[in-house]
Write a structure and sequence with these properties.
alpha/beta, Rossmann fold, Helicase, Ruva Protein, domain 3, Zinc Finger, Delta Prime, domain 3, 4 domains, seven-stranded mixed β-sheet, two-stranded parallel sheet, 19 helices, 9 strands, disordered N terminus
């Protein structure tokens, strides 16, 4: 199949269908039976589409992903989204579809040789009328050469590719493979969805079969701590149930079992860019509280404080500029403190700079000015430097007229003189246009007065 990329919504899941240490592909018509001693999250993995919680946008009637799971679809698919949202579950359900041979590879251990071996086997099976489903977990870890090895087989329908990733595939998967696959983006579960997962595990025979009671307050705590990750909610529940007295899970039990909420953030992936974007946009929008939230999120997740300081310095000029000239000084000072002090103390300087920038008046006049000037230069609007401004300190310069007639501004009582500074082609061109708020409210009047004197139009 060679159609354009399809956007189905959001998708992502967990550490993998198979252990990271597997030496090669594992295959079969369906996953093996669940071990009763397996972790609760494994035991409670949905066995049918009806048991899947969330992802309604992907699993509506006759949708491409539902047809694929039901054994009727023929499109390769990349399942993308945060952990614990059902990627591996959906791969399991595809594996149990009738009439298909299922092979799973882990990108952590498989190489190009493994990929080619699967494709050759799939080609043989296709001759006998049986199609192969190839599941690749953590496909973003595949190198370009490994992904290239899949292209022809996916294009010609030799394998039906089901790949899972927590990384944005537009950044981590090669374009030719993207163009041959549908992209299904899974979303983190909402509170009601996570609560459903928890209560099902308490009641279901695969879980606690009613032998454990979980209070409503405890369910709320687990929902909050899970961060939309169904698998993590079951992991927390299992830990709390093991520590519960009289088989009753309370908020106190949950607190004893887990001392910190998870922070969904990947310094090299999608969350890095999304949280950074939200941080800057919150400062630009003057929401100091949201800005501090995203700053805290980056710091707790282990983001390099030097990266944060660099973003603050850029923002100080890009979105504040001369509306508050001290904003750049504050951001620069924070960056210096990051270098000299480091974490954890430098978090205070970053927070102070964030507060300063978020509460400062905003102006994009600086970036607009320099970008407009650069656009003119790139378009050929340069012109000759006026002769009276040229260097007149070398022998023969005056004979060329260089520096002749230049007016020294300090000799004027106001420190400003009427004189042409711009090339002829750009005389009268205004690049800096200060808005009427913040420091620029006063600066705007001054700029207008200066232009009037310099251009002889008071």
């Amino acid at each position: 199949m060679s159609g354009a990329v399809g956007s189905l919504g959001r998708v992502s899941d967990d550490a993998g269908l198979f252990a990271a240490g597997d030496a090669g592909p594992r295959e079969g018509s369906a996953p093996p039976p669940v071990d009763p001693s397996a972790p609760l999250a494994v035991r409670m993995r949905p066995r049918t589409l009806d048991e899947v919680v969330g992802q309604e946008h992907l699993l509506r009637a006759n949708s491409p992903l539902r047809r694929l799971v039901e054994g009727r679809g023929g499109s390769s698919v990349i399942l993308y989204g945060p952990p614990g949202t059902g990627k591996t579950t959906l791969a399991n359900l595809v594996a149990s579809s009738s009439g298909r041979h299922f092979v799973a590879l882990s990108a952590l251990s498989a190489g190009v040789k493994d990929v080619r071996a699967v494709i050759e086997d799939a080609r043989t099976r296709q001759i006998h009328g049986r199609r192969t489903v190839l599941f690749i977990d953590e496909v973003h870890r595949f190198s370009k050469s490994q992904q290239d090895a899949l292209l022809a087989a996916v294009e010609n329908g030799i394998v039906l590719l089901v790949a899972a990733t927590t990384e944005n595939p537009h950044f981590s998967v090669i374009a030719p493979l993207l163009s041959r696959s549908l992209i299904a983006e899974l979303q983190g579960l909402d509170g009601a969805g996570v609560a459903t997962v928890i209560r099902r595990a308490v009641a279901d025979d695969r879980g606690y079969a009613g032998a454990v009671e979980v209070t409503d307050a405890a369910v709320e705590d687990i929902v909050r701590l899970s961060g939309g990750d169904a698998r993590r909610s079951l992991t927390i529940l299992e830990a709390a149930a093991g520590a519960a007295e009289d088989h009753v899970v309370t908020p106190e039990t949950v607190e004893l079992s887990l001392d910190a909420a998870p922070v969904r953030y990947d310094r090299d992936g999608d969350q890095h860019y999304d949280v950074t974007s939200a941080f800057i946009k919150s400062i630009r929008g003057s929401d100091v509280d949201a800005a501090l939230h995203y700053l805290a999120r980056m710091l707790v997740a282990g983001e390099d404080p030097r990266f944060i300081a660099r973003r603050l310095m850029v923002h100080a000029s890009e979105d504040i500029g001369m509306a508050d000239p001290t904003a750049l000084l504050a951001a620069s000072a924070a960056a210096e403190i990051v270098q000299k002090v480091g974490l954890p103390e430098c978090r205070l300087a970053l927070a102070q700079a964030t507060i300063h920038l978020a509460t400062a008046p905003k102006s994009n006049a600086v970036i607009s000015a320099i970008d407009s000037a650069m656009a003119d230069v790139r378009a050929g609007g340069v012109g000759e430097v006026p002769r009276h401004l040229r260097d007149g300190h070398y022998a023969g310069a005056k004979g060329l007229g260089n520096g002749v007639g230049y007016k020294y501004a300090h000799e004027a009582s106001a420190g400003v003189v009427r004189q042409q500074y711009a090339p002829d082609e750009l005389v009268g061109q205004d690049y800096y246009c200060p808005p009427g708020h913040g420091h620029e409210r006063e600066l705007g009047a001054r700029v207008a007065k200066l232009r009037g004197i310099i251009r002889g139009k008071p």
